[in-house]
């Protein structure tokens, strides 16, 4: 039995590697190519510097072993809906239409997408429903 604060060799059951089981960043096969170490745990590809002298691409590895991505070709395409077009395709021409019709559509989409898997386990709110 483990005591308080004593985690021994306990591993995460999610199937993801723990920080202890990850290879060193320099030897990580998942690290994007052509990076150089900028400072501890921060890598760069020397893509350029902005007007303030900040390096554009600073890559970091998450505790789960995934690396930050700046390549649009590798990113998942997730098109955002046009906020000035109703779900039925009609354009939003006036502020009143936005507040009465389009804003509630966007909020409903957000609630549906962000809590879709959790609706069955969320407690019922004793106050007003957001719908």
Question: Please, could you describe this protein's structure?
Answer:
With 131 residues, the protein is an alpha+beta fold. Among the domains are: 19-59, no CATH class; 79-117, no CATH class. The chain has 1 helix and 3 strands. It has one helix spanning 95-115; strands at residues 36-39, 42-44, 58-59. It has a 3-stranded antiparallel β-sheet with strand order 1-2-3, with no helix packed on it. The radius of gyration is 23 Å and the shape is extended.
Key terms:
single chain; 131 residues; alpha+beta; three-stranded antiparallel sheet; 1 helix; 3 strands; disordered N terminus
The gist of it:
It is built from one helix and three strands.
Shape label: extended
Q: Could you state the order of secondary-structure elements as H and E?
A: EEEH
Give the strand order of the largest sheet, numbering strands 1, 2, ... along the chain.
1-2-3
Major sheet: 3 strands, antiparallel
Radius of gyration: 23 Å
The helix fraction, in percent, is: 10-25%
Spatial gap, N to C terminus: 47 Å
Strand content: 5-15%
Question: What is the SS-derived class?
Answer: alpha+beta
Number of strands: 3
Number of helices: 1
Question: What's the overall average pLDDT, rounded?
Answer: 75
Unreliably modeled segments: 1-12
């Amino acid at each position: 039995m483990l005591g308080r604060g004593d985690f021994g060799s306990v591993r995460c059951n999610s199937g993801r590697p723990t920080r202890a089981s990850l290879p060193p960043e320099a030897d990580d096969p998942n690290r994007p190519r052509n990076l150089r170490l900028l400072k501890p745990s921060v890598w760069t590809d020397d893509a350029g510097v902005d007007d303030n002298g900040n390096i554009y691409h600073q890559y970091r590895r998450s505790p789960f072993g995934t690396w930050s991505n700046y390549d649009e070709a590798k990113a998942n395409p997730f098109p955002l809906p046009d906020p000035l077009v109703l779900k039925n395709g009609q354009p939003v021409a006036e502020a009143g239409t936005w507040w009465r019709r389009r804003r509630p559509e966007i909020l409903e989409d957000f609630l549906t997408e962000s809590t879709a898997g959790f609706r069955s386990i969320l407690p019922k709110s004793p106050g007003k429903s957001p719908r």
